[in-house]
Amino acid sequence: MEVIAIQKSALEGMKNELKALLELTENATRKYMPIFKEEKWLDNQEVCLMMNITKRTLQTYKDKGLLPYSKLNRKNYYKLSDVQALLGAGRPYNTIGNASTDK
User: Fold this and answer.
1) I need a labelling partner for 83 at 20 to 30 A (CA). Which of 20, 23, 32, 57 fits?
2) H or E element: which one contains 85?
3) pLDDT digits (tens, 9 = 90+) for 46-64
4) How do 75-79 and 70-72 pair as beta strands?
5) Residue 76, helix vs strand vs coil
């Protein structure tokens, strides 16, 4: 085990910097908390598993405007209610062209 000795003032300075960083992080995330607390949000993988579709099919749904999404830090998120609404609609489009899957 290695022991490193530093001055108490240096340790206090590091503590203060860490506290300031924590406060900045909390302030930055505070404005997004109401959005995430109002409704459950799902990522790509969760939506694909829930709908039993591939990532490509999910991309098609997004491209055609069938499934709204929000982007945060280069990652897509979907409202659970939007996914459930699309599931309730019975996936109105297949992935080949715009042909309807309902007969």
Assistant:
1) 32
2) helix 80-88
3) 999 999 999 999 999 999 9
4) antiparallel
5) strand
